[in-house]
Amino acid sequence: MPLKSVERDPAALRRLVHTVLALCVLWPLFQAAQVRPAALFEAGNLSVIGNFLAAFLPPETGSEFLAYLGQATLQTLAIATAGMALACLLAIPLAYLASAAGRDRPTLNPIVRGLLTILRGIPELVWALVFVRVFGLGPAAGVLALGLTYGGMLAKVYAEILESTDPAPARALAHSGARRPLAILYGLIPQASKELASYTVYRWECAIRASVVMGFVGAGGLGQLMDQSMKMLNGGEAASILLTFLALVFAADALSGWLRRSLDAPVAARPSPWGWRSAGSAAVLLIAVLASFGLLDMDLLALFSAESASSMGQFIASFFPPDISADWLRSVAIGIWETLAISVVGTLLAAVLGLVFALAPLKPVNRFVLNLLRSVPELVWATITALAVGLGPFAGALALALHTTGVLGRLYGEALDNTPPAPAGALRLSGAARGLAFFYGTLPGAAPQLIAYTLYRWEMNIRMAAILGFVGAGGLGQLLYFELSLFHYAQACTVIIAMLLLSMGVDQTSAWLRRRMR
Amino acid sequence: MGFAMEGVGLTHANGTVALAGIALAARQGECIALIGPSGAGKTSLLSVLATALTPDQGSAQVLGTELRGLSAPVLRALRARIGTVHQAPPLPGRQRVVTSVLAGRLGQWPAWKALASLAYPMDIPGARAALAQVDLDDKLFARCDQLSGGQLQRAGIARVLYQQAALVLADEPVSALDPNLAQATVRLLIDDAAQRGATLVASLHAVDLALNCFARIVGIKGGRIAFDLPTDQVRQEHLQALYASEGQTPPTPQPQAPGPAAPATPAPLTLCR
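YS: structure for the whole thing
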């Protein structure tokens, strides 16, 4: 065999090119996000955030304030529950129409699919902002916004769950003459029911967080209260609200975990499927939904009157045609670039921090910190980071990073726990230090999962980055907020379309990257 | 040097006794085959030598180091001199073969070199030489998940060859290879050990392979040493007693009437080497 004098790694050039390309893309993005870690330590900012955080203690416990707080908490829960009820109502028929499940030929319904993309692609906060203009301040806007966005999300996921279940039983039923709805009901739902229910419960948990956030645009609940306290820099009140909020999220987390675990309970051996637990749960669910609508005092029927339909129509018509003058498009392009930068920088920071948390010892402490980071929504973080580093995209990127660290840290931890331990164990036995054993033994096995989680999160973060501007964190959100405040609907429409296109583009890029990294 | 175990006992967390009263020693440079039925304790014995499991009784000394109460740096330095061929090759599927082989020296390389090697392999000729010994150098830059089971097992052996350990432990190192390749690979491990004066302990399922290639055979049954003999003194009755099923005890071997539950009688004694 002819031996070359110096042998080179054939993959080296490709790796180098990829690294250089990645840096060429990331560097301007970091520039656009105005990353200035030094801002965290500037004396002026330190004293503002220090004073604010110092005012957190003691939390406000005045009885009048507590009454407000209790009412706002109930309202938040009610918005989330009512919104989810609406979302389910919307999602079930849409999922049925959109899904290829149970069809002989998998013709995807392009119209419904497109509708779902639009529903999901526009963040709930934007819907809320729009609905606030129609229905005025109050929870109705929040419920409708949640219903539309979550309806779109649920429908897409329901459709995909049905498509990924084993189609043989449904096909057998269809071949023996069952119509599609019955074939799905008897052939697919029994297999998929647990996953469907589990995802719905998880989304309800998300809806609670989302309903808090929508309060920031005037849709009621804890968010509205929080917004007021933050604007008055009332640290004590903010602390009480945050604590309530944390308690709420932790409780929802626990409840949703318990519900999902109880889905594993074995089926009772009797003809009727109704036991005390299923009947009880159904009753609680029904009462909760009815009570939520009752509490919110929304006149939903009025929505369907001719009068509201015409005012709604006029309002929607005022958005068209979108403003596509060159000047405005230039501003929107800058907004897109800034939003992209916020999402990328925030996600990358979170990926690094999340990995550190996932690897650090002291599991219980870590879990608490991660839960804390995760349970405070990005928008609430943004109000705090804006105090710490000043208004602008860097505050938005930091806020995204804080929340996403909580999410990714937990997901990374689970992924690493599920990675086969043998390779790293073998390296430890041949004397490798723990860190090196991780890089050579664990990381190669876990990398696909870690990358997939990060990219999925980026898809969510681009939507979030688009609205962080509502609290002054730059990007498309800031543009939209200004234009809506000034009743410039044609300009706002351009921004909303840009948000939609941006999130669709990121979805495509992320899917492409995931395929490449496999 | 070599190793010495005295009265070593090991009980797993679930209460099963894996090893009891093991006394076994090897001079540096000796090559030993461990044989015995499944579940006899071969892997446990190798794990104690590999410092993966700590015996709860007795004392063990490996490469001149007492295994009790070692500080982390001393343990790491000791482990860097012990190479293990695992039954299931512990190579991540997405890693390239070259990186997997070079990982054999992580215990010896400084940290900067190990980290740099992730970006660019630091010793391509070394990895190629190790792979060439197992006839796999054409797969140098392939990914581990592109290898067949047998190729992967040989890549695992190449990593240990590259490690140049003073004590080589091999747990069923050739289980995924066909008989000819298995024999060649076991001989390779023996020759490599002989060349470098390293000690080799290999557990083998194929008794004929053990008898053909090794000078010293240790039979293990029920967590105890059943016999420990030079190969030319191993008799048919030793092997029958070793592989006789529980139902046949007491082991009075009667070659005329082997029990129905006994596994296929091991191959007749062929002369070693």
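YS: worth flagging: Chain A has a mean pLDDT of 84.
IM: good catch. Also Chain A is about 80% helix and 0% strand.
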